[in-house]
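Q: Mind making up any chain with C-alpha cells?
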Amino acid sequence: MILCFFGIVKKKKMQEKNVFSQLLPQVLATLLGTLMAVSDGMTYGWTSPMIPYFKSNQTHIEVTDKDCEWMETIVLFGASAGLPFTILGVNYLGRKKCMIISAAVGCICWIMILVGKSLAVIFVARFFSGMAGDMCFVAAPMYIAEIADHRFRGFLSAMIYLMMLVGMLLVYTVGSLTPFIYVPIIGIVLTLVQVIFFPLMPESPYYLVYTNKNADAKKSLVRLRGADSNIDREILEIEKAVERQKTDKGRPQDLVLIKSNRRALLIMLILNGAQHFVGISVVFMNLHVILNEAGSVYMKTSTAAIVFAVILLISASVASAIIDKFGRKVLLILSGVLTGAVLLVIAVYFHLKNVQYDVTVISWIPAVCIMIYAATFKLGLGLVPIVVTAEIFPTTIKAIGMTIADVIYVIASIISIVIYTSLYENYGMHAPFYLFGISSFLAVFFVYFGVPETKGKTLDEIQLMLKGIKPEDFESQYKSKEINNPNAVLE
C-alpha cells in the first residue's frame, strides 16, 4: 500500500512536470508576442498624464484644447485606417510576421514621440500607433488561440488584456511621476524586445497547415508542446479541422451566408458591444467628472485613476487564472450580475442627489462602487469577449471576424459615450447609469441562452458545436455516402 501511495505521488509529480514543460513554451511565445499590447495600453492611456504636461509651463510643445482632443482621437482614426492592412496581413503574411511588424511600427512611433519637436510629429506617431495597435489586437489573439493547448487556451488568450492593463498602469504612474522622456523610452524598450526576440518563436501551426506547410506545422507544434507530446495526433486534428473549414471560402459574405458564422458574428457583436454599454469607456474617460459630480472628497482623481487601473489588473489576473477552470459562461454571468448591481447602486445614488436628497453622509458610495465596478467588470465582461471572439471563428474567416470585432469595439465605445453625454446633459448622471445597469443584466440573459461554453474544447470542436453537430457524431456524418456535398454538413 505504501509503495502504491508513493507510486501515485511520483506519477502525479511527473504529470505536473510534463504539464509545466508543455505550457512553458506557449507562455514564453505569448509573453514575447504581447509586449506590443503593453505598448498599446500605454498609447491609449498616454494622454491622461501627458495633456496636463503639455498645458503646463514646462512643456516643450505648445498645444491648444483642440490639439488635445485630436491627440486623444487620432489613435482611433489610425486604428480604423489600419483595418484593411490587418486583414491582408494576417492572411498573407501570417500571424507571427504581423505581430513583429506591429511591434516595429510601435517602436518607431515611440522614437518619434521621444525626439519629436512639433505637434505634427506627435500626431503622426499617434496615428500610426493606432494602426500598429489594431494589428496587434487582431493578430495576437488569433496567434495565441491557435498555438495554445485547449486546456490552457483561456488563460493564454487572456494575457493580451493583462499586458494592455500593465501598459495603462505603467503610463498612469510613470507618466504622472517622472519627466516626459521616460514613457517613450519604456515603450521603445518593450517593442524592441519583441522585434528582436519574437522572431525566434514558432508560427501558428493552424496558419502553416492552412498555407500547405504541414512539415513546418509539425515542427512548430513540437516546439510548442515538447517532443514527448502526442504531436502526430494533434497535427492530424489540425489538418482535418483546416480541411473542413476550407470548404468555407473565407469570403466576407460567408459571415452571413453560413449559419455557424452568423451565430459567431452575433455572439461577437453582443459581447463586444456589451463591454461598452455597461459603461467602461465612459468611466475611463470621465472618472474625474463622475467623482466630482458625486461630491466625493475621499479620493483625489489622480489617485483614483491609479487605484482603478491596479484593481482592473488584479481582477483580470484572477479571471485569467480561473477561466479554464470555471469556464467562459460562468465568468460572464457572474461579472454581468455583479456589474449590473453596482451600476444600479451608483444610479440610485445620483438619482437621490438629483432630487435634492442630502447624500453627504454616503458620498463615499460612488468612489467605492467605481472601484468594485473595476473588479466585477474585468472579472468577465472586460476579459472574456476577446477570448471567445478568438475561438469562435473558423480559420478561413478569422481575420475578417477579428477585424470586425475590433471595429465594433470602437463603434460601441463611441456610441456609448455619445449616449452618456446626451443622457447626462438632459436628465442627470443617474440616467446613463440606469441604462448601463439594465444593459448588464440583458447581457447576462444573452450569455445564458446564446453563448456556448468553449472551455476545454479544441477549435475544431467549437466549430462543430456552432454548427449544431456533436464532435463524436461528426465523422460518421461527414463520411456518410449519403452526403455528396460537404457543405451540406458544414452549413
About this structure: Confidence is low (pLDDT under 50) at residues 1-15, 477-491.
